[in-house]
Amino acid sequence: MFFNDPTAFEEFFSPVAGSVHVRPATGSVFNAEISLHKLDKAGLFSLHANSFKACKEPQNEFYGLTLPLNSPFTISDGQINKSYKSRVAHLLSPGNPLDLTSKKNCHFLVCAFFLSPLNKYQQKLMQTDLAELAPISPDVLLDTPNGSGLVGSVLKAWAQLNQQGHFLSENVLLALEDDLLASLILYANDQTEQKIRDNSSHLNYAEEYICANLKNPVTRDTLAEVSGKSIRSLSRGFQQRHGMGPMTFLRRRRLKAAYLELLGAEPGSTTVTQVAISYNFSHFGKFAIEYKAAFGESPSATLAKK
Question: What fold does the segment set 200-304 form as a domain?
Answer without folding.
Answer: Arc Repressor Mutant, subunit A (1.10.10)
